[in-house]
Design brief:
454 residues; mainly beta; 28-stranded mixed beta sheet; 14-stranded parallel beta sheet; 1 helix; 42 strands; elongated
Length: 454
C-alpha cells in the first residue's frame, strides 16, 4: 500500500470579442491606467477598485494593498497572463483586509508552464512555485469570492502563513503543472500552507486539476494549520488528491463530493508513490473530522489517515463500479499510517462509512483506542488478491478489516473495538476481520460483524 506524499517529503469563458490593448499592471500604477475603471468610493475599511471590462493582458503581477476591494466589471473581466508574464502570481495580495471578487483569471498555462518538481522539503510552496493565479502571504483577513480561474500553470490560489481566510464560490479548471516526466507536481488547486489558521473553503468547484484539489501543508518545523473548514466543494478529474489535510489540527472536512480521482492516469506521480486519494492526510493531524463526504471512481484510496489521530471519520462513502483493470493505482478503502514521528495513531472513530468496490481490503488499522463500527464494506478485494504485500502481515490485502502490527513505524493494534460492520466481497467469510500474527486476538474486541462472500 504505497502512501501519498506531503511528508517533509476558470476563468469563465473569455468574452469573445477582440482583446483590448495590453497593459502593464503594477499595482502602484493601477489607478492611472485604463486597467482600472476608477476608484468608486471609500468604505470605512476598504477602498473599492473596479477592473475594466473585457480580457486584460497582464504582463506583471497586480499587487493589491491592504484594505482593498478588487472586483471585476459588471460586464465581466478576465485577467489573462500574457505570453511574457513573469511573476509569482497574476494577483499578489500584499496586505490584510482584502476582498477579491467577481472576475476571472486565465493563467495561460500553454505558454507559461515549465517542468518543475515538487517543492523541496525545506521550502514553502509560496517561495518556490511561480505563475500562480492568486498569492497571499503573511496577511490576515482575506475574502475570495465568485472567481473563475483557469489554465493556471502553478496553483489557482496559494495562501501562506495567513489568518482569517474565506474562499467561497470559486471555480477552478484545467490547472496545474507537471514535472520533467510529465507527472503532476501537486499544483493546480487551492493550497493553504505554513500555519494558516481560521480559514474556510466552501462551495467551490474544481475540474481537471493535475495535482491536489484543496489542501493544507506546512514544513515539518513550521506551525501547523489550524481551525479550518473544507465543505461542500465539488471535484471532477483530479490527478492527485481531491482533499489533503497536511500538518494540521481542528480541521473539518464535510459534505464534499467528487468523481474520477486519480485521472488522467498518465499524470499520476507514480515515481514518487503519490497514490491518489479522495481524502488524504499527512504530517501530524489531530482533533480533525472527515464527515459526510461522497466520492465515485477513485483510482487509489478512499481515505488515507497517515498522521491522523484523536479524530473522527464518519458517514463518508466511496464507490467504484468498474473492473480491476480500470484502476491501475487501485488500493484499500481506509488506511491508517504513522509516517510523522511526532504522532501516534490513537483514538480514531471510524463510523458508518460505506466503501464499495476497492481493489483490496476495506480498513487497515494500526495503533490504539480506535472504534470501527457500523461501516458497510462492500464488494471488497475485487482483484481477488491472495498475494503477500508484507511478510509480517500476510493477510493485509485480502482482509475486510485488518488489525496490523504497524506501518511506517511499529504500532500494534490494541484496545480497538470492531463491531457491527457489514463486510462482503471475495472470500470475506474467511477473511472478514484478521490480525497480524504478532497481534494477539485478546488485544482487541471483535464482535457482531456480518461477513458475506459476494
Amino acid at each position: 500500500m504505497a502512501h501519498s506524499d506531503d511528508e517533509p517529503s476558470g476563468a469563465g469563458e473569455s468574452p469573445a470579442p477582440r482583446r483590448p490593448k495590453a497593459y502593464s499592471t503594477g499595482f502602484l500604477a493601477l489607478l492611472s491606467i485604463p486597467l482600472i475603471a476608477g476608484l468608486i468610493y471609500t468604505w470605512p475599511r476598504r477602498r473599492l477598485v473596479e477592473l475594466r471590462p473585457g480580457v486584460v493582458e497582464v504582463h506583471a503581477p497586480i499587487e493589491v494593498a491592504a484594505g482593498t476591494e478588487l472586483r471585476g466589471a459588471a460586464a465581466g473581466t478576465v485577467l489573462h497572463a500574457a505570453d511574457d508574464f513573469r511573476g509569482r502570481a497574476i494577483v499578489v495580495v500584499r496586505g490584510s483586509d482584502v476582498l477579491l471578487h467577481s472576475f476571472g483569471i486565465d493563467g495561460n498555462r500553454a505558454a507559461l508552464e515549465r517542468p518543475a518538481p515538487l517543492a523541496p522539503y525545506d521550502a514553502p510552496f509560496a517561495r518556490f512555485t511561480e505563475n500562480n493565479g492568486i498569492l497571499a502571504e503573511s496577511i490576515s483577513g482575506l475574502r475570495i469570492e465568485n472567481l473563475r480561474i483557469a489554465n493556471a500553470a502553478g496553483f489557482a490560489i496559494l495562501v501562506s502563513h495567513a489568518a482569517d481566510v474565506a474562499i467561497e464560490g470559486v471555480m477552478v479548471r484545467s490547472s496545474g503543472g507537471r514535472n520533467a516526466l510529465g507527472r503532476n507536481n501537486a499544483t493546480g488547486g487551492i493550497l493553504l500552507e505554513e500555519g494558516s489558521t481560521d480559514f474556510r473553503v466552501a462551495g467551490c468547484v474544481l475540474r481537471e486539476i493535475l495535482g491536489n484539489g484543496i489542501w493544507t501543508h506546512s514544513l515539518y518545523l513550521s506551525p501547523r494549520n489550524a481551525r479550518g473548514l473544507i465543505a461542500e466543494n465539488r471535484f471532477d478529474e483530479i490527478g492527485r488528491d481531491a482533499i489533503q489535510v497536511g500538518h494540521a489540527l481542528d480541521i473539518r472536512v464535510e459534505q464534499n463530493q467528487g468523481a474520477r480521482i486519480g485521472y488522467p492516469v498518465e499524470a499520476v506521480d507514480r515515481e514518487n508513490r503519490a497514490i491518489p486519494v479522495a481524502i488524504d492526510t499527512a504530517g501530524n493531524v489531530e482533533r480533525t473530522v472527515y464527515s459526510g463526504n461522497r466520492y465515485e471512481e477513485i483510482d487509489g484510496k478512499c481515505i488515507d489517515l497517515d498522521g491522523f489521530h484523536d479524530g473522527a471519520v464518519s458517514g463518508n462513502s466511496c464507490y467504484n463500479a468498474g473492473l480491476p483493470p480500470d484502476y491501475p493505482f487501485g488500493n484499500y478503502g481506509i488506511v491508517m499510517n504513522n509516517s510523522n514521528p511526532d504522532m501516534q495513531s490513537r483514538n480514531i472513530q471510524v463510523l458508518d462509512n460505506v466503501i464499495d468496490g476497492p481493489l483490496y481490503g476495506g480498513i487497515f488499522v494500526i495503533g490504539q483506542g480506535h472504534r470501527v463500527a457500523g461501516n458497510q464494506l462492500l464488494h471488497l478485494n475485487t482483484a481477488h488478491c491472495g498475494c503477500v504485500y508484507d511478510a509480517g502481515q500476510p493477510g493485509i490485502l485480502a482482509a475486510g478489516i485488518y488489525l496490523g502490527k504497524g506501518a511506517e513505524r511499529p504500532a500494534p493494534s490494541a484496545r480497538v473495538v470492531v463491531e457491527d460492520n457489514i463486510i462482503s466481497g471475495y472470500r470475506m467469510k474467511t477473511h472478514c476481520v484478521e490480525s497480524a500474527p504478532s497481534v494477539p486476538p485478546a488485544a482487541n474486541t471483535v464482535r457482531n460483524n456480518r461477513c458475506e462472500d459476494r
